[in-house]
Amino acid sequence: MTSGRRGSSLLPWAFLALPLLFAVTFKFFPMLEGVRMSLYRVQPLLGDEWVGLGNYTKVLTDQRFLDALGHTLLLGVGQTAGALVVGSGLALLLEGQARSLWVLRTAVFLPVVTAVAVIGEVWRILYFPTETGFVNEVLGAVGIGPFGYLSDPDSSLWSVMAVGIWTGAPYDMVIILAGLAGIDRTLYEAATMDGVSRWQRLRHIVLPGLRPALTVVLTLAAIRGLRIFTEVYVLTGGGPAGSTEVWMTRVYSLGFERNDLGVASAASMLLLFVTVILTLGVRLATKSREAR
After folding, report:
1. Among residues 120, 146, 119, which one has the least CA distance to residue 134?
2. pLDDT at position 161, please?
3. pLDDT at 224
4. Is 47 left (phi over 0), alpha (psi -120 to 50) or beta?
5. Is there a contact between 169 and 83 (Cβ–Cβ < 8 Å)?
6. What distance in Å separates the CA atoms of residue 210 and residue 156, rounded to the nearest whole number?
7. Which regions of the chain are under pLDDT 70?
8. How far apart are CA 149 and CA 154, in angstroms?
9. Cα torsion for 270, 276, 282, 284, to the nearest 10°?
10. The pTM is what?
11. Sequence-ordered list of residues with C-beta below 8 angstroms from that of 268, at least 6 positions apart, any chain
12. HEC profile for 192-211?
């Protein structure tokens, strides 16, 4: 009996052993190695040279990094706000139990499950900067354009932002739909009997009921915005003339093109630090609001 109980108590650890091994090997060890590299001038053949916080100083005083930070914040705020508005609108339109709505939700959700690289290539074709490009041809039918989109430094960042909103809105829609499903339906019925208008119902019933879902959406969107890379890399590579360079494309450029792994590691550690602080800040703000 004792051996049987001991074996059953060890069974959960046996299932956890392999995932823990993979996590340590492919996540935590590389993270610690990144911290170490951020404190050295990495020279694979000559030996690493200790520089302390010198790499961090280079990152925080590099004008290209500062410009990339501005682009990252602008993209993050724009994509978060745009995807939240569009996702909320889609959720309100597609709320319900009808079978046809499930089909529409699946169709709308397709951008989320499609590879970002594929999305980027498709939008690069749609944005083709001539009169025969798809978007320019559609706008030309109503007498607008043509525009340069990704090839124009003045419009390239906004074009990337539009793709990010198109990709992120369905993801936000699903979370908001889950939040809407958790709202007590009797509140709607009581509001209807009391003659409450749609705007009042949205303000006093829907928005308070969606607060937990909106917190999740904003947290994930903020983290996603800070770490944006694939969309920008596929669409523009950070160009033209650095107009769409973001934090992660600058890190990629330093680490894999210039082989300056120490500075790239320092920039990655700064991004990790900001992400952790942002996540903890949102959680603390949510808990303090719930405590009230």
Report:
1. 146
2. 93
3. 83
4. left
5. yes
6. 34
7. 1-14, 98, 286-292
8. 8
9. -120
10. 0.84
11. 34, 38, 251
12. HHCCCCHHHHHHHHHHHHCH
Structure tokens, 123: 């939008």
Query: How many CB atoms within 10 Å of residue 50?
Result: 8
Which uninterrupted H or E stretch holds 41? strand 40-41
Phi-psi region of 238 (alpha: psi -120 to 50; beta: other; left: phi over 0): left
CA–CA separation, 60 and 214 (whole Å): 32
Tokens encoding 161: 């932002």
Give the C-alpha separation, 174 to 199, whole Å: 22
- Of 291, 279, 232, 272, nearest to 72 by C-alpha is 232
Cα-based distances in Å from 229 to 68, 113, 154, 223, 226:
12, 17, 20, 12, 9
> Looking up tokens 């539009």, which residue turns up?
162
Q: How far apart are CA 199 and CA 33, in angstroms?
A: 53
Q: Hey, what are 155's tokens?
A: 């419009």
Tokens representing residue 32 in the block: 């610690």
DSSP 8-state class, residue 190: H
- Neighbouring CB atoms inside 10 A of 186's CB total 8
Cα 120 to chain centroid distance, Å, stands at 15
How does pLDDT run across 201-225, given as a tens digit for each residue? 777 777 878 888 888 888 888 888 8
Residue spans of alpha helices (H) in the chain: 2-23, 29-37, 54-61, 63-93, 99-113, 116-126, 134-140, 156-181, 185-193, 198-201, 207-209, 211-226, 230-235, 247-252, 261-291
In three-state secondary structure terms, 40 is strand
